[in-house]
Structures are given as C-alpha cells and as structure tokens.
Amino acid sequence: CHAMRSVFVHAGIFGFLFGVAAQFIWPLSWEYGAFISLIGIALIVVSVAHRSRRIRVCSLFLIFIGFGLVRSWYAQQDALDPYLESHVGETLEFSGLVVSDPETSDTGQKASVQLDEYSETILVFAGLYPKLAYGDRVNVQGILKKPEPFETDSGRMFNYPAFLARTDIFHILQRARADVTAHGEGNPIRAMFIKAKHAFVASIERTSSEPYAGLAAGVVLGVENALSKDHEEAFRIAGLIHIIVVSGYNITMAGDFVRGMLGAFPASVGLAGNIVGIFAYIALTGASSTAIRAGIMASVAVVGRVFKRKYDVTRALLLAACLMALQTPDIVLYDPSFQLSFLATWGLTRITPFFESKFAFLTERFGIRETVSTTLGAQTAVLPLILYQSGSTHLLSLFANFIVLPAMPALMIASLVAGVAGFFGRYVALPFSFLVDLIGAYVFGIVDAVNKYPDAMLRVGLMPVWMLVISYVLLLVGVSRISKDVSLPAAGREVRRS
Description:
This protein is of the alpha+beta class. It contains 21 helices and ten strands. Helices cover 62% and strands 11% of the residues.
C-alpha cells in the first residue's frame, strides 16, 4: 500500500515537472494543458470502472502534466512594459528603488532596480561609485537593452534572458550612471538581514587574511564574488566550486543551533525554533534557489520528527523541487545552480547507500567511508550535467573532493566563530582566524595542485541533449535497482550532506 501511494505521489510530481519543462521546449497555449488534464480526469473514471491502478497512475501523470503546462504558460505571460519595449537601444533615465543586494566586482556594480513609473524591475550595470545598497532610492541613466543569449566557453548557448526571467527581469541598463537620492526605503526586515550579512563578512575580512577570508565568507554565507575570478575558475576546474555555495549542511547546522539554544523548553518549542533558524539563515544568505531547496528539505525532516513519520528524503527533494517550480517555473531548465543542487542531493540520497555497501571494507574512523561514499554518490549524479554544461571535467576532481570535504565542517565552524568573535576585537578572534587561515591554506593547496595538471582535463566538447537524456534514463534505471529509501534516523545525516 505504501509503495502504491509512493507511485501515485511520484507520478504527480514527475508529471508536473515534465509539464513545466515541456512548455519551455515546445511552447503551447494553456488550452493544450487543460485538454491533457481533462484526458487524465476521464481516465480516472475509466480506472474506477476497471479497477486498474496502472490507468490511475497514468491519469494522475497526465493531469499534472497539464497543470505544469498551464503554470509554465502563465509564467511566460508576464506583460512587458510597452514603453520600455519601444525604447530598447536608447539612452534613458529612470528613478527607482534598489531591491537586491548589489553585487560588486572589479569593474562595477550590478543591482536590480524597481522602477517608479513603470511596471518592471530592471538589472542595472553601473560603475563602482557611488556605492549602492539595498533600499537606496536612485536615479539611473544608461542604455536600455534586452538581455541576449551568449556562448559559453564550451561552445553552448546560455539562455540569459530565461535565466533573468526567473526573477522577473526582462530588461537591463548598461553603462549606467547612478545617483543615490535617499537611503533605507526597502523592507526593514530584509535590510536588517543584509546588514548583518555584510557586518559578518567585514568581521571575517578583518580577522583573516585573503584569500582565506573570501573562502570563509563563501563557505558560511555563500557570498557572491567572495573569491577573485581567477580563484573561482581554479575551484571550478578542480571540481570544488560547490563548497563556496550554501548547502544543506550549513542550513541544518543553523537550525540545530537554535534548537540547542532552546533546549530548556519543550521539544515542540525547540523544533519550531529549528525551523525559524533554518529560514532566518536562508534570509541571511540571500534566499538563493539552492538555499531554499535545502531549507524546504530540512523543514520537512523537522516536521517528520514532530509527527514521528518516516522521512523519505527523495520525496522531500521532489516536493521541494515542485514547490520551487510552482513559484518560479523557469528554474527547472534555466537555473544551473538549482539543477546541480537537486541532482547532487538526489545522488546523496539514492546512490550513496550503494557505494556505502560496496566500501564496507573502509574504516568509519574520521568519516573516511562516509566521505568516499557521499562524494561518489553526488559526483555520479551531477557528472552528466556538468559534461553537458561545461563540456569538460578534471579527472582529479574526485580525488580533490575526497581530501577536501572532511575539512569543511572544521572550516565552517572556525569561520563562524571567527566572524562572531571579530565583533569583540581582532585578538579575541585570533585563535579561530588562525584556524581559518590554516584550513584555507590546505584547501587552496589542493586546488593549486589539481590545476597543475591541465592534461588531466577530460574534454567531451558540445554534448547533445539526447545524450544527456539517455545518461539520466540509464542512471535512473540503475538506481531503481540498487537504492533504498532513507529512514528517519538517517535523515539528519542525509540532509546535512545535501
């Protein structure tokens, strides 16, 4: 009975995700989606008459395909402001509110500005000065353009317009001049979290040396541009770029910390604090798609503990993906970080147990068996997509993950304590900042060692999409034979890995 319910749930989830993705690949009107759902409803009547569970599963699959098609169609109907559309390519001046935490690079700033007189938010590329901040009221002047697809280093076209559309941005303002006319007009709660994030990063930068301070900021809070472009590229080549983004491990630690602080209260209060801690940390990190996905999964695990229900990690992952696709359908095909995070977590929950059984001869001391198994599980799941996106992978990246990942918990804790202690003085934070520098030097040493062997880079060129699909079909078939659902006692460990 439980297995049959799982089939129904998975049929609905996969049907919805398939419908969302199909609408972007083969654009259809909403009527087609409604028609497919009606066919599914008709099949339910047939299944009741014939008492056929297979027909019922197919009907559910069709109903949610139609729902996914309609939701994805509706998301693409966002009306573009006619004035902006008619003046693309011209130099224009606007007033508006900065509604994102601006990203700063060596050449300028990038911020989302909600326009006062028009119904859109545009992405503004401005110079380094004046410094922009969330909640600033600004006047901006620049060339209005529509984002265009561009070719990546692998030769694949990246759909930049669809990537921005997931945040409801359809126009950009290039080479903009920005003048700040007022401060502090944004949401005060969000402004508080952003200020806390900046203060923490500044504290780490005061107490630790570069580039280790940037690594610490990336590991703890997933700070964009925490490392230089050269360092980011080196981490990407080494297959370690994932350690400087927010993961389920960070999020679960935040929730458990709050729960521990409420240890004197009833268990229900502690669990509520756990969830509050999870989403407060997500807000602090900027609420990226990766963080939201991991937060939803961690919250489902917490609720499962409250009601003493079995925690199916795979179902929680699919539920998280559906909720996020329901809110922002574009992420299914056009958000690489979401795709990689989703697949990595799926690999950890469904492939890792297989490797754990095969590497039973390895010792569990120092987490050696767990590190080897989880690394292989995650890397197996993301490898086809990485090859499709970048056209290459380093043959030593797996080894680099084996020897770097065991040091990550210590680096995270040391970075967190160093950042907090830095508010009380540099000398108070000195022992922890020394540990941050020490572990950071170790990580950078591994990255540099991998980058010294460019001949070990496996290049496959422009991988066709049909090969990507076949790769994951074969992987799904293989996993269906070897993997098992993760039970509640192991859920905490699995979520931390995600």
